[in-house]
Write a structure and sequence with these properties.
- The chain is mostly helical.
- It folds into 2 domains: 5-35 and 152-201, Endonuclease Iii, domain 2, CATH 1.10.1670.40; 40-146, Endonuclease III, domain 1 (Orthogonal Bundle).
- It has helices spanning 5-18, 20-29, 40-49, 55-69, 76-80, 84-89, 94-109, 122-129, 137-146, 159-168, 177-184, 191-201.
- The two termini are 23 Å apart.
Amino acid sequence: MPKSPAEIERGVKHLRRADPVLREVIRRAGPFTLKLRHDRFHALVVSILSQQISGKAALAIRKKLEERVGPDGMTPQGITSLSPEDLRAVGLSKQKASYILDLADRVHTGTLPLSRLARLSDDAVIDALVEVKGIGVWTAHMFLIFSLGRLDVMPHGDYGVRSAIQKLYGLNDLPDRATCHRIAEPWRPYASIAAWYCWRSLEL
């Protein structure tokens, strides 16, 4: 994350103090090692094509798309040069092809200035991103955490985080938004770090 190691360390210490359940996860999982996705456009394209399919299927489509756009990489210009049929040929649904073309067009024309999003508040970033077809609050939350490195994002709609909270806190059902935020209250202002440890807890 684009924060100092000292701030990350403060965040982890805060979580250890504030939440005994998370303290044990941190002990078992070890250091916080999230790496930022610096290519913001690429990250959003991958988020869209990954929706509602397995990680393996998403990776296969991503590789085919990267081959299709060629050596210049997955750029807005490269995507806008493709037709919906080109995108369908690499495995994208008709709907996702329209989403990715809409994103590429907005970035290419400057309607969605990705380079300036880092200057905006979390809420303003979400508002800007959800204007794009196929981008909802979940994708915006992932962008805030993994591309902009925001430290206090609670991705209440993420199945992995919800599943981890259910298991870690002994809930009978997957938590709803209100329950997620209630449990996350002690995590503030480091909810993103806590969410990362929730994901890690599923791998332990």
